Amino acid sequence: MAQAGVLLLRLQNVKKVFNSFVAVDNVTLEVAEGEFVCFLGPSGCGKTTTLRMIAGLEMPTEGEIFLREKRITYLPPQQRAIGFVFQNYALFWHMTVYENLVFGLRLRRFPAAEINKRVHEIAERFELMDLLKVRAALLDLSAMQRVAIARTLLIDPHLLLLDEPLNNIRPGLREMMRADLKRMQQELGKTMIYVTHDQEEALTLGDRIVVMSKGKIEQVGSPQEVYDVPATLFVAGFIGRPPMNLFDVQYEVENGHSWLVWRQHRWCVDKVRNQIEAAQPEKGLVLGVRPEKLKISYEASGIPAKVLLVQPLGRKDVLTLDLEGTTVHGVIPSELRINVGDVVFVEFPPEGMHVFSTATKGAIVHGIS
Amino acid sequence: MASVEVKNISKIFKDKPVLKNVSFYVSSGELFCLLGPPGAGKTTLFRIISGLEKADTGGVFFDGKPVTSVPPQQRDVAMIFEDVALYPHLTGFDNIAYPLKLRRLPRAEIKKRVNEIACLLRIEHLLNRRPHTFSGGERRRVAIARALVRNPRVLLLDQPFTDLDAQIRHEMSAELKRLQINVGQTMLLATHDFEEGMIADRMAVINDGEIHQIAPPKEIYNSPITRFTASFVGSPAMNLFSCQLVRTATGCELRHPAFVLSLPWHPVTFPQQVWLGIRPEKIVLEKGGKIKARVEVIQILGAEQIVDLVLANGDRFKWVAPLSLSEKFRRGDELEFDFPISAIFLFDYETGHNLVRKEV
Amino acid sequence: MKRKNIAMTARPPVISAILWILHRLVVLLVVGVFLVPAVWLLSISFKPPTEWQVFPPTLIPRSPTLDNYIVLFKPEAPRGTAAAMLRVTEPVTKSFLNSLIVVPIATALSVTVGFLAAYAVARFRVGGAFMPFFVLTTRMFPPVAFAVPLLVYYRWLRLIDTPLGLILIYAGFTLAFSLWMTKGFIEGVPRHIEEAAILDGASPWRVLFTITLPIVKGGLAATTLFVFILNWTEFLYALIFTSTKTITVPVQLSHYVGAVGRFYGPQAALGVVASIPVVILGYMIQRYLVTGFSFGLIRR
Amino acid sequence: MRRLVAILKSLLYLFNREKFFKNLLVLPMQLLLNFLLLPPFAIVIYLAFVNWQPIFGSWTEAPFVGVNNFIRLFAEPRFYEALGRTFVIVIVAVAIEFMLGLALAVLFSRPFWGRRICTSVILYPMMLPWVVVGFTFYLLFLDHGPVNYVLSSLFGPSGMISWFRSPISAIVAIIIGDIWQWTPFMFLIFYSALGALPKDPKEAAMTLGASSWQIFRYITFPMIKPVVYVGLVIRALECFKIFDLVYIMTGGGPGVSTETLSLYIYRVAFKYGQLSYAAAVAIIVLLSIALVSRLAVRPLLKEVV
After folding, report:
1. What ipTM was estimated for this complex?
2. D88-258, CATH topology level
3. How distant is the Cα of C133 from the closest Cα of chain D, in angstroms?
4. Buried-exposed string A173-184: b where 16+ CB fall within 10 A, e elsewhere
5. A47 touching C, CB under 8 A?
6. What is the CATH number of the domain that holds C128?
7. What pLDDT digit, counting tens, does each position of B329-353 carry?
8. In angstroms, what separates the C-alpha of A24 from chain C's closest C-alpha?
9. Among B341, C115, D153, D225, which residue's beta carbon has the most beta carbons within 10 A?
C-alpha cells in the first residue's frame, strides 16, 4: 500500500518485546523513495523503538526489515547507511562542528579535497559557515539540530530517520524549522521518517502519517485521511486539537426509518443504514463530531448549551460548552464575540458526523448526509 | 489574595542587563501572563518577586506595601518551577501538607485542607504515592495543590507546562483558568508559548528584559504595537516585508521589490524604511491581485492548510487558506493575492514601533 | 553524491562466538588473579604450624585447624605445641576494642563536619571553587612528613596514646573525602526543590534537615562506609601516635609480624579477621562508588 | 517576659539569615582543620631551624642552628636514593595500574552475566588494610612460597628467586603488591566514567559507520580524558606516600636498598629520634608536593570552573 514510486523500505510483522513488555506489536509498513512519513503517537507507543529497529540500534524479536528488497533485519547499523537524528542531537560534544561533519566521510576514507567541498556545500545550506570552529557543546539548540541533520546527510544515507528533533525548540522558532525541513526534504528528495508526539507537527510535515498506539499501527494515511476519515476511535481522539467530541448513541429503527438517538435528540441515518447495520449496532455506537465542524450561533436552531470557558488562540477561539451535562468543545473564528455564561445553540452537521462501533473501536461511517 | 506591583525593576547579571526598568501592576485575583522567548528575563523577574533574588534597582509591592526587604520565607509567595520540584522523598499527601506543617497547623486541619485541595484538582488517588510514579500532568496538579493549599498572596508559574505533550498542555492551561475563577487566586504565568498565555486576563510581552506591550491577549493579537510582539504572538507568525515608504497625494505608497501597494492613509511620522505586516489568515486569494507568488510548500492542518509562498525576489511568506480552496492550487502554481487595507500594519524599520495612522 | 559503501568486515557469527568465549575466559582469569592472594591467606590461617613452611606449598590444608583463630583471642588457652610456640603476649581483643571505638567516632565526626561544609560549598560557593581542591591537598601530603611536627604537638598536648588524639587525626585526614563525595551527592539535588521549600516557609536549617538530608541519605551512608574503611585500614598514624593503650588492629598485626617471627598461622588469621568487616562494607557501597567516582567531570 | 521573647525572636531571625547560616556550616571544618594543621606547620618550621632530639630534653631550649639541617639533607645520599626509589615505584606501578585499569574497564563495559559479582571481586583489594596486603604478599613471595613453586615448576629449580634477598627483586615484589591493591582504584574511575557517558553519541557514530574500535578511539576515550587525568594525578600522589607495604614486606631491607621516602623519614624521625633533621626533610617534601599538586590541579580547575 505504498504510494506511487520505488519501494525503498519494507517492515514485515515486526515485533519487539522488552522482557514481557510488548513495545512494538506486529508492525507492517512500506515506505517509497522520496516520501516524508511521520510516526505519530503518544509517548510510549513504540514509535521510537520502531525507528531504532530500522536504524539497527535495536534488533526485532520477530519479523523482517527490507531495504531495497535486501534483508537488513540483523545487519549492524554501521552497514545500513541509514541516517539517524537523535532527540538530543547526540553530537560529539568534545569536537568542533567541522570535526562532527567530517566524521562520517573520514571513516569512508574520502579524499580530503572531496570532504572539504561537500562540507562547505552543506554548511552553506545549513548556515553553519561561521560556526565550523565552535565546539559542539557550546552551540545553541537550533544550531545543534542543524549540525545533527547536516552530519547525517553528508554520508548520503538511503533514508533519514528523525526522533522528535524539534522537541526542545520554542514554538515560534519551531514553525520556521519545520518549514525549512519540509522544503529541504522536497528539494533533496531524501526519504525521511519523522517521529513525533505532536499531532500538529505530523499533519504539517508528513506526506503520509502512521498513527501508533500501544505498539500497534492504528492507521496509515495522508494528513487529510487521518483527519477526515479516522479509522479508529483512538485516531479520532488523538488527531485534531481540541479533540473530537464523542457521544454514546443508540441505533433505533422506527416506522421504516433508522435513527441515531442521543438523549432526546435524533438524527436520520437512512442513507448509511446498511453500513451501520452491518457493524452490529446493538453492541453500542459512538458518535464523533469535530469541534471545528460544530455550527455554533445565537439563533435558536440547535441544541442549547451554556458557555463555560473561552480560550482564545489568536485567529480562532476554543469554547468549552456544557451541552445537557456533557462537556463539549467548539471552535469559532475570533471575530465572533461569544463570552462566558452565554447560552448558544449547537448544530451537528450531518457531513461531519463520524460513527464508530463501541465494540471494535473501529470506524463505521464518516458523514451521514 | 494580594495585588502585585513591580516598579522600575532592573537587574544586571555578569554585566549583561537582564531586566531593564520593568514595571507593571497585577490586581488581586487576576491571571496575568508574562510572554517572552527563553532568556527574556521572565525567570529572573519571578525570582525577584518571590524574594529568591534581589533586584539591583526598583521595588516589589504586595497590596501596595513594599516587600523588597521581606525574606522569601515570610513573603508568602508560591512558585511552580519549570521542573516542578516535588519533594521526591515525600508522598503526595506529605508534599501538599509540607507548607502547612511549617505553619504548625493542627493535624486534623492539615488533613481536611489537603483532602479539600486534592479533590478540587482531582488528585485524591495520588495522595499516598511517591512523585516518581506520577505522570507529567499529575506532577503539575500536585505542585499546584501544594502551592494553593496555603492560599499564598501570589502564585507564580514559571513555564510550568513546556515539556508536556501538546494535548495535556492545553488541558492544564484551561485548568488554570478554572482554578482562577473558583479560587480567585492572583496568578502570574510565565511562558514562551503564546497559545498557553491567551487564557490570561492580561498579557505582558517581554523581550531582552524590556516590556513591549501590556494588554488583554486579544488586543495584543489584533493590534501589536511593536514588530517583535507582532511576530511573537500568533502561529504561524505574522508575515513581515521590508518596504520603502513614499508619500503620495492620496496617502502613501509601499514599494517592495516584488509589489507596490497604495494606502488611503499615511503614518504620522514618515520613516524611509518600514516593515509591512499582515497576518497569514488575513491574506485574500484574488484574481488580478497585486501580489504574485509561487506555491512552494502546502501543509494541511486539519480544518486549514498553511501554504508557503515565495515572491519574485525570493522573499517568503505564509498564507492560511480554508480547506474549501484546496482544489484550486497545487505546488508550483503562480497565484495572485491581495492584502486587505484593514489588515495591514506598518512598523518603523529601526525602532520596530507601530506607526500611528493619520486618515487623509 | 556518489555513495561509497563502507569497507567493513562483516563479522560472521563464528568469530563473534569466539570473541564471546574469549571475553568470558579473560574475565575468569582476571577474577582468579585477584582471588589468589586472599585464598592463600585463608589457607595458611587454617593450617597447623607443621604445614606453614612445607614445599611444595599445598592449597588445601591437610589437617585444618582453628587454633590460629582461637589463640588470637585466648592466648592462655593451652593447646598443645601451637600455644607454646606462640608465646603471644596480649590478646587481640584490646586492639579490636580500640578500633571499634576510635574508627566509628572518627568516621561520624568526619562525615558530619564534611557534609555541613559540603552543603555550604555546594549551595553558597563558600571559599570559591578552589576550596574543595584545597581540602583535597590535605590528602596529598605524605602522612609521615606531617607526623613529625604533629608528634611534638601531641606530646605537648599530652594526646599521645589516647583515643581522642587518634579520633581527631582520623577525622581531619578523611575530611577531604567526606567533603568531596557528599558535595557530589548534594549537587545531585535540584536547587529548585530547596527553593520550593524556602518559599513554603522553611528556614535554611529546616531545608537542610528535612529536604536535602533525606534525599541524599543513601549517598551519605555510602560516604560514611567509605570513610570507615579508610580509617579502619589506616596504619601509619596509628603506629606513631599509639604505643600500648590504644593500638588499633593494623598496628597489632604489624607487631605480630615483627615480634612473633615465623608464626604465619596466627598472623594470617588476624589478617583475615581484620579484613572481613571492610570487605563486607565495600560490597555494600559498590553501587554508590561506581556513580560517585566520576567526580562529575563527565558532562556535555 | 515579652521583651525576652522579642530578643529571642530577633536572635533566631539573625540565626537564620543566610550569611550567618553559611559561616556556621563551615565553622566546624575550620575548627578541626586549624586545630590539626596550623600549630604543626609552625612547629615543623621551628624544628627545622634548631637542632633538637627528644633525648636532649625540652624542645624549647634547643639551640638555633640555621640551615644546617637543610645542608645536611641536600648532602645526604640516602635521601636521594630513597627519593629515586620512590619515583621508580610510582612511575612503574601507576603506569601498569593505568593500563590494566583501562583494559579491565573496557572489558567490563559490555554487560555480561555475573558482572556485578566480578566487579565486587575486583574492587575488594582496594578496601583491605594495607598491612594485610603487605603481609599476604610477604607470604606469597617467601623462598618456599607459592610464587617460587610456580617458577620452579615452570623454569625448573634454578628459576626460583629468593625475593627478599636482592634489592631489585624486593622492589619488584613491592610493585606487584601495589599493583594488585590499586589497579581496582583505576578500574573504578574508568568504569564509572564509561558508565556516566551519554549513550547517544556512540549510537550516532554507529549509524555514521564507525566500528567499535573507532568509537572508542574518537568518541569514548576523548570524552573521559578529564577523569583519566584526575585518576592519574590522585593515584600518583597517593602512591608517592607508599609506606605500609614496604614496612611489612621488606622493612626497607635488605639493608636500606628498598627504603622509600616515607620509610626514610619514619626511620630518621621515630627510630633515630633526629626530629629536627626529619622536620627539614618534611618541609622539603611538603613544599614539593604542594607545588606538584597545585600544577597538576590547575588544568583541571580551568576545566571545571
Report:
1. 0.81
2. MetI-like fold (1.10.3720)
3. 8
4. bbbebbbbbbee
5. no
6. 1.10.3720.10
7. 888 889 899 999 888 998 998 888 8
8. 26
9. C115
